[in-house]
Amino acid sequence: MGQDPSTTDAAVTETQNPDQLQQDIEQTREELGDTVEELAKKADVKGQAKQKVAETKASVAEKKEQLLGKARNASPDGATTTAAQASHKARQNPLPVAAAGAFMAGFLAGRFTKS
How confident is the model over 97-107, as pLDDT tens digits? Predict the structure, then answer.
């Protein structure tokens, strides 16, 4: 920026063939085009806002699906399934269930008779 333009690039003072100059010009045009494109993206506030909204919608939809999945598992159908599984296990192992029932019956009887 603060340099003398005549000392910045030795290649400018050298004689180059036209093909090399054309390649340099094309490369500079590509770089300039890329730079302009990046600046345009950064300056496009409306486009950035739309992209952020789309990302947020996708995130909310994903979280919604996760919560719905959890709700389905905790729904009455899920409770029914859990109760059916517990009932099946109780039928397979009746002794622990009978012992727990007898304990609860004795506990409740003792609580009611003290009052």
Answer: 777 878 888 88
Query: Domain map of the chain by residue range?
Result: 14-114
Which residues contact residue 13 at a Cβ distance below 8 angstroms, ignoring those fewer than 6 apart?
A: 6
Residue 77 · residue 84 · CB < 8 Å: no
- 8: which DSSP letter? S
**pLDDT above 70 coverage of the chain, percent:** 77
Between CA 16 and CA 23 the distance in angstroms is 11
Q: What distance in Å separates the CA atoms of residue 45 and residue 2, rounded to the nearest whole number?
A: 33
Residue 16: per-residue pLDDT:
76
To the nearest 10°, the Cα dihedral for 81, 86, 90, 96? 180
Q: Please state, rounded to an integer, the average pLDDT across all residues of the chain.
A: 79
Would you call 92 helix, strand, or coil by DSSP? helix
pLDDT of residue 30: 95
Q: Could you tell me which residues come within 8 angstroms of residue 110 by beta carbon, excluding any fewer than 6 positions away?
A: none
Token digits for 29?
A: 């045009």
